[in-house]
From TrEMBL:
Belongs to the oxygen-dependent FAD-linked oxidoreductase family. Keywords: Oxidoreductase, Signal. Residues 119-301 form the FAD-binding PCMH-type domain. One of its GO terms (molecular function) is FAD binding. Gene3D superfamilies: 3.30.465.10. InterPro entries: BBE, FAD-bd_PCMH, FAD-bd_PCMH-like_sf, FAD-bd_PCMH_sub2, FAD-linked_Oxidoreductases_BP, Oxid_FAD_bind_N. Residues 1-20 form the signal peptide. PROSITE patterns: FAD_PCMH. The keyword Signal applies. This is FAD-binding domain-containing protein. It comes from the Eukaryota. It holds the Pfam family FAD_binding_4. The lineage of its organism: Eukaryota, Fungi, Dikarya, Ascomycota, Pezizomycotina.
Amino acid sequence: MPLLRNVLLCLLPLVPSVLSDSQCKPQPDRCKAVPGTPGWPSPQTWARLNESVSGRLLQPPPPGAVCHAGQPTYNEAACAAVRTAWTSYEFHTDHPISTVWNQWNNHTCLPWDGNPCSSQGYPVFVINATTVDHVKKGVDFARKHNVRLVIKSTGHDYVGRSNAPNSLSIWTHNIKGFETHASFKPKRCSVTIDSTAVTVGAGMQMNDLYGKLDAINQTIVGGGGRSVSVGGYVTGAGHGMLAPHYGLAADQVLEMEIVTPKGDIVTANECQNADLFWAMRGGGGSTFGVMTSVTMKTFPAPQMMHVDFALLASGNNTATRTIFDMVAYVVSQLPSLGDQGLSGYSFFFPLLKGILSLFPLPGVTPDDPAAEVGGFFMSAALMNATAGDMRRIWAPVLAHVNATWPNQFVPILETKSYPSFYAWFQEHYDTTPAGQDGYAVSWLLDAESLTRDLNKNSQAFERFAGGDLGTAFLVSGKGVHNAQPRGGGNAVLPAWRKAYIHATGGVRTIPFNATSAAEARRELAARTEALRQLDPDSGAYMNEASPFLDDWQRAFWGDNYDRLLRIKRTVDPNDVLWCTPCVGSERWEQVGDRLCRVK
Ligand SMILES: Cc1cc2nc3c(=O)[nH]c(=O)nc-3n(C[C@H](O)[C@H](O)[C@H](O)COP(=O)(O)OP(=O)(O)OC[C@H]3O[C@@H](n4cnc5c(N)ncnc54)[C@H](O)[C@@H]3O)c2cc1C
Ligand SMILES: *[C@@H]1O[C@H](CO)[C@@H](O)[C@H](O)[C@H]1NC(C)=O
Ligand SMILES: *[C@@H]1O[C@H](CO)[C@@H](O)[C@H](O)[C@H]1NC(C)=O
Ligand SMILES: *[C@@H]1O[C@H](CO)[C@@H](O)[C@H](O)[C@H]1NC(C)=O
Ligand SMILES: *[C@@H]1O[C@H](CO)[C@@H](O)[C@H](O)[C@H]1NC(C)=O
Ligand SMILES: *[C@@H]1O[C@H](CO)[C@@H](O)[C@H](O)[C@H]1NC(C)=O
Ligand SMILES: *[C@@H]1O[C@H](CO)[C@@H](O)[C@H](O)[C@H]1NC(C)=O
Ligand SMILES: *[C@@H]1O[C@H](CO)[C@@H](O)[C@H](O)[C@H]1NC(C)=O
Ligand SMILES: *[C@@H]1O[C@H](CO)[C@@H](O)[C@H](O)[C@H]1NC(C)=O
């Protein structure tokens, strides 16, 4: 019994160091395999995987390696190009292992001078999947060989779920495909759903999908980022401009094709694999299976009446308290504006220098670039409406602000009409830069919490903004509250069904600086807390929240958590898929760069 002997020897506390590491290696199933240990598949085994996926197995060097002398791919011209492209989403989404936010590769190969470079923080192998079968081969291999598995589509993830060290990654970015339907009959269902719909591959990205549907005058409930893919977006919930009208993206799903952790290729809809269908719509990415395609409802493309609305204070004559009192008032009006058809993205901020350069406010150029400006800004739209409609819904808000804080805030209300959602999107997609270090923080707020106590909200929003920008996205509303997802429900955090506002912010960090990392964690907790106290029973949108919440199960899934956990244990009893913070992740922990069972 050599195995038993090793275990016993390793358990003895004072065994002299004559025992080699390999004798004391952890049990094969205690930790996932890592390269350089006997548990890791041999080169021949990897080569067989490569053959089984038609030579599509990659072993890519880190994208930043071209900037580091001594790395095999070192190349100054390529380095210059990588540095230039680093802040663009496309660079990271089109690369097999790059991620949009730097810290998720553990800073092991940033493209800057003086930084270290190794592959440590990246997956070891990647399948450049284009078919369901490639995905299945990857899942089967990881399960059989105890290899840590990750799914990367675009790498946008704010909580770091699309990358891991010592792993095999299935890169779903190149699983495209696009087919529209005048009505849709889910497989093995007798019912035909009387709605236009579209079936797309899991790698399909927002702007491409919007463009293809626009060509037939249709659109979907989609997000504000141009390059986000349907994979993480739909499985996480998916909010956007059309959500207050029609429900979240997860509410539009009619069917999915999924490779399960056991390696089955299944169709999930209201008539078959109903548990999986429920869980994959809101339960989160890379947890219950790999979605290879999704069918969603589509809608007639609306005309967009856009507004840039702002109330700005400049100079030193307005106290921060006054600015946030005004913000608390305007934000309290958003549920009512939402009920009148408005949706969009609002931002609030204390007096800051250079803030106007972030917002393309028509006709507003600060005379003095060093001038400090604080207040409220919203980029929003009404659908199929006139400029008069837009001015009418804001008029009472402007009148109230003018009467309450005379001469304190300069109002701006500029409208612009767009013939379609797609035309609007080309000028109003999310332009925050990629390639940064930092985290998201957020909380969902319902109408009652936004209107109950404006004094309290004023202070809470100021704390939430943290001396910088806070946001109140009006991306939920009646359509989300009254949504009728197929099959009688889905796993979306129940707090969405009452919320109007998804308030988000960002916390930047400095790489290789432990003080900054610790400060960021404290700040994420404090900012979450500032809003949680306004609506304690609500929760946070897992796709855009702090990864470090103590009670993430409840915050991200509320009362759905227990059912999600049961489904996870059934479909993935041995945790072939594991990520954090994800359903069922409690029984593993990351020890250094290894993933091990909790003792
Ligand atoms: C600039 C920007 C704008 C954004 N705007 C919005 C917005 O308007 N609305 C909104 O709701 N969210 C928005 N988000 C958040 C976005 O929804 C999440 O970052 C989401 O996780 C991205 O999904 P992805 O597939 O593009 O990214 P990835 O990082 O590749 O994947 C995210 C997660 O999903 C998993 N996953 C990906 N594909 C699959 C699949 N096929 N099957 C199973 N699991 C999969 C990954 O393993 C990972 O866990 C935005 C993010 C950014 C960076
Ligand atoms: C997989 O096979 C292809 C084609 O034979 C080859 O070009 C590629 O280098 C192989 N991948 C790995 C990781 O060895
Ligand atoms: C991945 O596959 C796609 C589709 O076949 C191909 O165009 C692309 O070049 C591949 N990427 C890499 C890095 O091999
Ligand atoms: C889309 O709408 C435009 C303008 O109304 C119309 O000219 C065009 O024929 C429509 N296209 C389709 C495919 O319906
Ligand atoms: C906008 O108008 C179009 C054309 O009349 C209609 O089909 C669509 O449902 C409307 N959309 C919204 C959100 O009102
Ligand atoms: C704001 O006040 C500070 C000191 O309190 C002063 O240095 C600065 O010049 C003032 N700025 C403006 C625009 O008045
Ligand atoms: C603002 O209030 C003043 C009186 O305090 C009034 O003269 C002015 O017309 C108001 N402006 C707007 C836009 O309501
Ligand atoms: C590290 O971070 C702290 C806190 O943000 C900051 O005060 C300090 O200047 C940083 N140090 C370096 C070397 O960047
Ligand atoms: C990140 O890198 C540090 C060394 O800088 C290492 O100790 C740690 O284990 C790494 N973590 C992960 C998750 O790879």
